[in-house]
Amino acid sequence: MSKDREKEILKLLLAKKKITVNELSSLLFTSESSIRRDLARLENQQLVKRIHGGAIIEENSISTLKIPFVIRELEQSDAKIKIAKQAV
Hints:
The protein is 67% helix and 10% strand. The protein contains five helices and three strands, in the order H-E-H-H-E-E-H-H. Strand 2 and strand 3 form a beta hairpin. The radius of gyration is 14 Å and the shape is globular. The two termini are 25 Å apart.
């Protein structure tokens, strides 16, 4: 569930460049504390920069190049894991 939320957060940030925790909470129908945890994980991966009350994507950072890859990586992750297990 959090992987899907993180993907949606990244998509919204790519579109808006800056978003608040309140906006994310209402758009994704989840608690603000869950959003903060998701943003912390994304910041640890150096995909976003957290600011007071929200997050931003810096245009000149490497994160704008990494985010489309991460979004594709998160899509259908359960199915990809299932296929990998069958291949092994």
